[in-house]
Amino acid sequence: MDPKKVDEGKMSGDGDIGSVMGFSGFGKKARTFDFDAIFEQTRRTAIERSQRVLEERQKETQMEEDGESSKSVKPSVHSQKEKLAAASSRVHESDSSSGSDSDSDSELIGPPVPPQHAAQEDEDELVGPPLPPGYSGSTAHSDDDDEEEAQDDDDDDNPVKKIPDTHEITLQHGTKTVSALGLDPSGARLVTGGYDYDVRFWDFAGMDQALQAFRSLQPCECHQIKSLQYSITGDVILVVSGNAQAKVLDRDGFNVMECVKGDQYIVDMANTKGHTAMLNCGCWHPKIKEEFMTCSNDGTVRTWDLNSEKKHKSVFKPRSLQGKKVTPTCCTYSRDGKLIAAGCQDGTIQIWDRNLSVHTKFHCRQAHTPGSDTSCLSFSYDGMTLASRGGDDTLKTWDIRNFRKPVNVATGLTNYFSMTDCCFSPDDKLLVTGTSVKKDGGNGKLVFFDRGSFQRVYEIEVTNASVVRCLWHPKLNQIMVGTGNGLAKVYYDPVKSHRGAKLCVVKSQRKEKQAETLTQDYIITPHALPMFREARQRSTRKQLEKDRLDPKKSHKPEPPVSGPGRGGRVAAHGGTLSSFIVKNIALDKTDDSNPREAILRHAKDASENPYWVAPAYTQTQPEPVFAEESEEDEEADKEPEWKKRKI
After folding, report:
1. How does pLDDT run across 30-77, given as a tens digit for each residue?
2. Is the pTM higher than 0.70?
3. What's the structural domain count of the chain?
4. Which residues make Cβ contacts (< 8 Å) with residue 316, sequence separation at least 6?
5. Among its keywords, does the record have Protein transport (predicted)?
6. Would 152 be classed as within a structural domain?
7. Which residues contact 419 (CB under 8 A, 6 or more apart)?
8. What is the pLDDT of residues 539-567, one digit of tens each?
């Protein structure tokens, strides 16, 4: 077969395919590329370009240095060129040495390293972009910078510097002791309770500088409020008062649940459904949002479930060394919720495992003076330390791993209340509590102790009354204080604190709106005929705004004129007859309560000096002729009626 014909057939076939597919070139040999040569050419081009850029930059910097006095002698352009050449030669040598092994990690890709950065890498092996040309190569700071950094480090290490006490606001709860404080987890709302049976709700975002509570109620009628606490989700509030039944309210103060009352005639308190005596304290579980705990004078600590109000969940019964019933005065959960601690009236602190209610896990017999009320127990954020505030004027810390004796003791902290608080700072380095004072006996203080050394490092004089409740919120970094004279104070720092009180102090006080009254009664007649239908009454506010623009309606009434009168106005007691009569009527002090006496008072004067009726009839009036009465007739008239009847 002729090869020419075969080639012609192929070409015709390629033409057909090209017309169908839309492109040609079928059957041609593909072009081959030498990637090594391409990479080498690209690398050399990049090196040359970078050298040109560096030379231009060096010329510019040299021209700037000629115009200014340079502080440090810099290398000349020639030396830098030599260094660049040496660097490029090193690059060429490395390329030639690594030509055989293309996978070597030592091969440089891209432009050469600037000389300043190369010198720094040789000395310190710094990581990051190269330093600018005008920067002095030393990395050491000046003495001033070192002192400032050291000062900042000291401030960070000193926990006293973190206390937010530069500013404060005062919330007026009432006139009696604020015995309960509660702040929701987000720090948006504060709730206060007191000896006046009131619970007040405060919204930081909704308040202005007037600092008024948006709701006040008495959930437990005539019982003092002992404790208030928001749940971990912040949607409900536990209210513990002086009665035997704890209540749970929602965020707006409406009742959600009320614990059942137990049978006081049953001896074993474990067999009753609820408490039978006054409550002392209560708190929510830190992990389970439906569980809370209460302790009472009936000698029990009970846990409850929010969904089952008919019966408690479990019962813990504190016992003395002799096995007798002991009254718990305060209770709390550990941070992980696995332990339950209670402070008792016999001075003991007893801790149970939450799932084992029979025997105590930790028990300290002589934690505080017997007979004094342990007012507060608080676990540290790390869960290893327990702080107890005693009625014996002491504050103690305990290591629960060695619970026989206290780690630190502070004395001389007067305590007159059974709910005086103690709490840890958010960084766990400070411990805070309040002191009590008698009336006109000085100022109540908020005292701060260092957790490690237990030295009194700081104190704040709050007011001339006892400091009962204190709360240091970890998110807001603000301290809430409840006092014995009905105040709730909030301490904050504009820099270190967040939200909370900072939201309401920047809002200007709202102007009070005038009382809006209906201008006229509006009768709704939907089926009346159009001619009898009244026009729809517009809003009172708009009508008041229109009246305000009306010069006649908005004109202030003129005050009454005193004296002879001025400006064309006559005084109220002017020369007119009506004003004279009104004045005399107002001055008439006679008593007309008995009309007969009031008329007869003028009878003698009317008979002696007739003025109205008698002179008109003087000519026609006959003279009266009366028969003279004898003495016998007079005596007969004086006789009684029964004698006359007999006659």
Report:
1. 567 778 888 888 988 989 988 889 888 888 888 877 765 444 433 443
2. no
3. 1
4. 300, 301, 302, 303, 340, 342, 352, 357
5. no
6. no
7. 179, 180, 226, 227, 281, 330, 375, 376, 468, 469
8. 677 778 888 888 888 888 877 776 666 66
Distance linking the first and last C-alpha atoms of the chain:
190
**Could you tell me which residues come within 8 angstroms of residue 62 by beta carbon, excluding any fewer than 6 positions away?**
77
The string of DSSP codes covering 236-304 is EEEEEESSS--EEEETTS-EEEEPPPP-TT-S-GGGSSS--S-EEEEEE-SS-TTEEEEEETTS-EEEE
User: CA 66, CA 64: separation in Å to the nearest integer?
Assistant: 5
Distance CA 94, CA 101 (A): 11
Quick one: which H or E segment has residue 491? strand 487-492
pLDDT for res 632 = 63
Greater model confidence, 15 or 282: 282
- How far are the Cα atoms of 71, 391, 411, 429, 512 from residue 399, in angstroms, in the given order? 62, 20, 19, 15, 55
Range of the domain at 449: 160-506
Question: Per the domain annotation, does 284 fall within a domain?
Answer: yes
Mean pLDDT of 224-232: 91
In sequence order, what E strands does 504-572 have?
none
Assess if residue 303 is contained within a domain: yes
Residue 276 belongs to domain with CATH number: 2.130.10.10
Q: What is the pLDDT of residue 107?
A: 46
Helix, coil or strand: residue 342: strand
Phi, psi of 239 (to 5 degrees): -115, 115
DSSP per-residue codes, 3-40 = HHHHHHHHHHHHHHHHHHHS---TTPPPPP--HHHHHH
Residues 576-627: tens digit of each pLDDT: 677 667 666 666 566 667 888 888 888 888 888 887 777 788 788 777 776 6
Q: CB–CB of 179/469 below 8 Å? A: yes
Dist CA 137 CA 435 (whole Å): 58
Whether 233 has a pLDDT exceeding 60, the answer reads: yes
Residue 54 and residue 79 in contact, taking contact as beta carbons nearer than 8 Å: no
Residue indicated by tokens 């209340």:
417
* Cα of 322 vs its chain's centroid, Å: 46
Classify residue 274 as exposed, middle or buried by CB count within 10 Å of its CB (0-12, 13-18, 19+). buried
Secondary structure E strands in 380-477: 385-389, 395-399, 408-410, 422-424, 430-434, 444-450, 456-463, 467-473
b/e code 13-39 from CB counts within 10 Å (16+ = b):
eeeeeeeeeeeeeeeeeeeeeeeeeee
Question: Looking at the domain assignment, is residue 536 inside a domain?
Answer: no
- Measured CA to CA, the distance from residue 513 to residue 555 in angstroms comes to 20
Confirm if 89 and 81 have CB atoms less than 8 A apart: no
331: confidence class by pLDDT, cuts 50, 70, 90: very high
Radius of gyration of the chain (CA): 49
Interacting residues of 426 by C-beta distance below 8 A, sequence separation 6+: 381, 472, 473, 474, 477
Asked if the model's pLDDT at residue 379 lies above 80, the reply is yes
Which pLDDT belongs to residue 26?
A: 54
**What torsion do the CA atoms of 83, 85, 86, 92 make, to the nearest 10 degrees?**
150
- Percent of the chain that is helix, strand, coil (3-state, to 5): 25, 25, 50
**The dihedral formed by the CA atoms of 579, 585, 589 and 593, expressed in degrees to the nearest 10:** -170
